[in-house]
Specification:
By secondary structure, the protein is mostly beta strands. It has a single domain, classed as Pectate Lyase C-like. The protein contains three helices and 31 strands. The chain has an eleven-stranded parallel β-sheet with strand order 1-2-5-8-11-14-17-20-23-26-29. Strands 3-6-9-12-15-18-21-24-27-30 form a ten-stranded parallel β-sheet, with no helix packed on it. Strands 4-7-10-13-16-19-22-25-28-31 form a ten-stranded parallel β-sheet. β1, α2 and β2 form a beta-alpha-beta unit. It is elongated and about 70 Å long. The N terminus is likely disordered.
Length: about 325
């Protein structure tokens, strides 16, 4: 009996050791980050007790040590580059401010497999520039008051490995477009995009992804421009309100693609709820194949009406 009991105890303890070993790899400790604090002085090595006072110093060390960056509350006047594989995390987007030191370039440039969370980015030529071919995540940020685009996403092969995700963020008061994107795999979800000097979002041809659950309002141009040529884009459950032109503009230069517009609210835009613009010949069959406007969108008080006839701009 004692032998059986001892065997059970040994087996139980062995299982605990295995479980502890398995989960220890998921624990985040202070040693997993390089720290930044704008009040830091004296010895600076990026540790929790001796943080750097500049974000770029922390990113450069994080790249060498294969760690991520944690930014404490403060104002940081610099332009940063987030290198491959680095995540930069602020404490809160209303407490961490990255303000351009050089206002003739992007405040933040993001490289492959990088992430930016919980910061405010402002006062640059561009707020955030995602470099050509780079996979990137922008989450719970505020991008505002930049001279050109809030977020500018350069092109890449349309591939999950090069996907750009913009979620839970506010993009406002930029002089050009809130989000301008070249051909990409992408997700733009749960954002507030407002008061930008041109359009809310502008998606170039050959893009593939979703625009979902966003509030896109009070922009000086169109709420969302999307080029259907070679694209596969799903526009669902967004609100397009009080934009100075159309809520959504679907445009083409003559090549079929696929855009689906479903369960959106489009109201009080200064022109059409949904506009269709052809810059090259595009037949009725081409439009029927390339644009699906599902019947459960809700429209009201758009100045010109709900869905525009095709405007041939050639």
């Amino acid at each position: 009996m004692k032998k059986r009991l001892n065997k059970k105890i040994i087996a139980f303890l062995t299982a605990l050791i295995i479980i502890a070993g398995t989960f220890s790899g998921f624990q985040v400790t202070a040693g997993d980050y390089i720290y930044v604090d704008d009040d830091a002085n004296g010895t600076m090595d990026g540790s929790s007790d001796h943080p750097y006072d500049e974000i770029q110093d922390a990113i450069d060390k994080a790249e060498k040590k294969e760690k991520d960056v944690k930014i404490r509350k403060g104002t940081y006047r610099e332009n940063i580059r987030i290198w491959k594989g680095i995540e930069v995390n602020g404490s809160d987007k209303d407490e961490v401010f990255i303000i351009a030191d050089d206002d003739e370039t992007a405040v933040v440039k993001m490289y492959y497999d990088s992430a930016l969370r919980k910061v405010t980015v402002r006062d640059g030529e561009v707020g955030i520039e995602v470099r050509e071919g780079a996979k990137a995540l922008i989450n719970d940020c505020k991008i505002k008051d930049n001279d050109e685009d809030g977020i500018r996403i350069k092109g890449a092969d349309v591939d999950h490995k090069k996907e750009v995700i913009v979620i839970n963020s506010t993009i406002e008061n930029n002089d050009w477009t809130g989000i301008y994107m070249e051909n990409r795999k992408f997700k733009i979800e749960d954002n507030v995009i407002l008061n930008n000097g041109k359009d809310g979002i502008d998606l170039d041809r050959d893009s593939e992804g979703s625009v979902r659950d966003n509030q896109i309002k009070d922009n000086d141009g169109v709420g969302l421009k999307v080029n259907v040529d070679g694209a596969e884009v799903y526009i669902k459950k967004n609100t397009f309100r009080n934009n100075d032109r159309d809520g959504i503009e679907v445009r083409t230069k003559g090549e079929r693609g696929f855009v689906q517009i479903e369960k959106n609210k489009l109201y009080k835009n200064d022109r059409w709820g949904i506009a269709r613009v052809a810059r090259q010949a595009f037949s009725d069959d081409d439009w029927f194949s390339s644009l699906k406007i599902i019947g459960d969108n809700i429209y009201w008080e758009n100045d010109y009406g709900n869905v525009a006839p095709v405007y041939n701009a050639f």
